[in-house]
Amino acid sequence: MQVHPDIAALRSDRAPQRQAQTAILAARDAWAAEEGASELLAELDAYGTGAPLEACSTLEAVFTGQGEAERLMGLLSKHYCNAIAANPIGHPPFRNGFDGMASSILLARAGRAQLMLQAREPGEMANPGYIFSDASRFDAVLAGEAEARIVRIASRQEQAAEFVEERVHLRPGHRIAFDLATEALMIDRVTRRVVILRLMRTAADPQPGREYCAETGCLLHQSAGCIATSRQEAIIALLGRMGRDDAAPAIAQVAMADGDNSLRWQAMREALALDTATGFAALYTVARRSEDPLAGQAGALRAQLLETYPQLAQVEAA
Predict the structure, then answer these.
(1) Quick one: which of 25, 54, 183, 253 has the fewest CB in 10 Å?
(2) Phi, psi torsion values for 234, nearest 5 degrees
């Protein structure tokens, strides 16, 4: 492996890295000391635990008034850009991502709330699907111009939805509030890089997120509204792909326990695939609970399996 001499020098002497990072953290502290910045972060904590926006005066000024968002983000950029210019190997303490067209920087997170900067590069945007989640969001457009649509759910069935659209021209100073359960912002064309300061808060007990086909309105995908539930789903799926039959009893317990129905049903399927006896016993237990929201699905699957594999009746008898 070839290592650039500058990188090799840093590996042999960690002092410049520590100095650069100290300078970056000093920039963070300097911004937090600016008028309004510490109040913004403190109010984010309150907002993240459920306080209304109206009870958070600085946050409300940022996302409903004019000038405060631009002032605070201008100060943040000044402090960090000066620090990075003087310390090119410094790394701002923000989670970030960039895919060539869209970038995102997570400035802060508290409870159920997130404060982030998002940007879109000039060009046409393809929007084949509309995503809705159980959350609220406030957008403050800081810079740039773009043509966009606010897509709203007009009616929804179990596997499809119908939409209405409102065209908007995004420009500096624009402030928009969204109920993400029924509204989505779709940016179609960016003429000048658009930069948005975004405040988002998930519901206390979020319902599943859903993605619909923009052309047909058909439901394409459904995902857990809670990050912890999504993590459990991923773990259970991984154990299934690994063929870890020793995990079947624990997965079956997830299927029988109270919780997210999507997670429980996935756990039921994985338990059946890993260990038929363990999974079928869990299926039988759920099917017998008349008050269980999965009882109907479990009963139908149980009947189908018994018809295909009559020997499973011995598992019930045991």
Answers:
(1) 54
(2) -65, -40
Please list the residues that pair with 151 across neighbouring strands.
165, 184
Structure tokens at 304: 């189908």
Per-residue pLDDT of the chain (318 residues; tens, 9 = 90+): 777 776 776 667 677 788 888 999 999 999 999 999 999 999 999 999 999 999 999 999 999 999 999 999 999 999 999 999 998 888 888 999 998 899 999 999 999 999 999 999 999 998 999 999 999 999 999 999 999 999 999 998 888 999 999 999 999 999 999 999 999 999 999 999 999 999 999 998 888 888 999 999 999 877 766 677 778 888 999 999 999 999 999 999 999 998 888 888 889 999 999 998 899 999 989 999 989 889 898 889 988 988 888 888 877 766
**Residue 209 in contact with residue 223, Cβ under 8 Å?**
yes
C-beta separation of 249 from 274 below 8 A: no
What ranges in the chain are assigned the alpha helix state H? Answer: 5-12, 15-32, 37-48, 57-64, 68-86, 227-242, 248-256, 261-274, 276-287, 295-308, 313-317
Alpha-carbon distance of 182 to 164, in angstroms, equals 11
